[in-house]
Amino acid sequence: MSFETGHVGLNVTDLGTSRDFYRQVFRFEVLGESGQDERRYVFLGQDGRLVLTLWQQSEGRFPAERPGLHHLSFQVPGIDEVRDAEATLREIGATLFHDGVVPHGEGASSGGIFFADPDGIRLEIYAPSGADVAPAPTSGAPTCGFF
């Protein structure tokens, strides 16, 4: 039996704010949406493929110190795409955890940017190569940028 990740579903506090954030940063398209009071959601994807569902059914901010999601990571083909996403994040005033692209470990070529969405959910956009020009955020390897 073989498995691969399908889509990811996230609870959000404000569907409009989160929809706009994920569309701006990830360039996702809206595949479906419901504005019904008790069932507010949006399906986001790329090239017609569902990637992320957002459900407005929570309050407050995501508690990273509790069991559950550590972070959600998205891979892009190259470091230029990572830098484009970083520029968008800076334009919209998102919370970045490091100043720019960082490698996954000292001397590692893979790496990216680490940031939070409007609800505090920790996210990463990384490339498999091209990040080895910066120091790693911690001296030990591997790291994900949130330690």
From TrEMBL:
All copies of domain VOC, residue ranges: 4-128
Query: Would you say which domain of life the source belongs to?
Result: Bacteria
User: What Gene3D superfamilies does the record tag this protein with?
Assistant: 2,3-Dihydroxybiphenyl 1,2-Dioxygenase, domain 1
Which residues are the signal sequence here? none
Pfam families, from UniProt?
A: Glyoxalase
Keyword set for this entry? Lyase, Metal-binding
* Record GO terms (molecular function): lyase activity; metal ion binding
Write down what this protein is called: Lactoylglutathione lyase
Q: Please indicate if the UniProt record lists Protein transport as a keyword.
A: no
